[in-house]
Design goal:
By secondary structure, this protein is α+β, with helices and mostly antiparallel strands. It is built from two helices and seven strands, in the order H-E-E-E-E-E-E-E-H. It has a domain of 51 residues. The chain is elongated and about 85 Å long.
Length: 134
Amino acid sequence: MADRLIRVQVLSAAVALALCTGSAAQALVDPTRPPLDLMGSAGVSATGDAEGASPRPRLESILLSSARKGAIINGQYVALGGAYGKATLVGITPTNVTLRTDKKLDVLQLYPSMEKDSAAPGAEERSEKTASHP
């Protein structure tokens, strides 16, 4: 009787282990990572590893203080005068940085350029009416 109970317990444990192995194979994904289409997915795999050619430099942040001047480019901190791949960070302003390679200067904008569209028809009339009321 005890022998049979041990066999059932061993069999139950084996089945439970067999069912659990599939869930352990899932990769962990960073929930704070931006979608790949925002990161310029050409050359970057789903795990974030570079595939062959390096991705186009993307300016993520500018750090300006009395203690340091630098930028975060594609997740990598680059100090003013420091190297990013084959380029050198040669200029920093509050809204853009300049990378110099042997052949050219590349200006990376922190914010995409935005052009002001014309106002919707009648928008000026509405704003004048609301401005006249106290």
